[in-house]
Specification:
Largest sheet: none
Structural class: mainly alpha
Strand content: under 5%
Number of strands: 0
Length: 173
């Protein structure tokens, strides 16, 4: 007999955990809530962790949720982060639609392509936040968005790993 068959503890018919379809959305909300931590800094250095988790879930599991879930999740992110209401709603929905188009146009993607896609979307997100802040009267240079952008791009592998582990756990594998 094969050793893997002897060591398996899976039961026949074991399926996903209860509420498995809500776990991706809950992790995005928890990541958005990280902005409420009492961290004092002269300038914002932390990225939009909610958007980072949204991208990680969407790139790992395109079927984890429908594209319209980006709007309510963006609204929650706007409320938790203090961003203008509608900024994350519009941008997150656009990002989900962009990733849907990329899914339809590409035959295969490897890890480096997904990381590049995430970097492009994160850069566009930081640029949109900077632009809207400028429209609302916050005069700061674009270079002040570089630390959160670099942190977000470099932490994407960690977010992808966390999402992978959570997905493995939620599906009961």
């Amino acid at each position: 007999m094969v050793r893997a068959a002897l060591s398996s503890r899976r039961r026949i018919g074991q399926g996903p955990r209860a509420g498995a379809m809500y776990i991706p959305a809950a992790t995005v909300v928890v990541a958005s809530a990280l902005s409420a931590l009492p961290i004092v800094a002269a300038a914002g250095w932390y990225p939009d962790f909610g958007f980072l988790m949204l991208i990680a879930w969407r790139l790992l599991r395109g079927d984890a949720w429908p594209a319209w879930w980006a709007a309510p999740l963006g609204f929650v992110n706007d409320v938790l982060t203090g961003a203008p209401i509608g900024l994350s709603v519009a941008w997150w929905t656009a990002a989900m639609l962009i990733l849907d188009i990329v899914d339809r146009r590409t035959i295969w993607r490897d890890y480096w392509i997904e990381w590049a896609l995430a970097a492009l979307l994160l850069c566009a997100n930081e640029t949109a936040e900077w632009w809207v802040a400028g429209l609302m009267g916050a005069p700061f240079a674009y270079r002040s968005t570089l630390p959160p952008l670099l942190i977000a791009i470099l932490s994407f592998p960690v977010a992808a790993w966390i999402v992978g582990r959570l997905d493995h756990w939620r599906l009961g594998q």
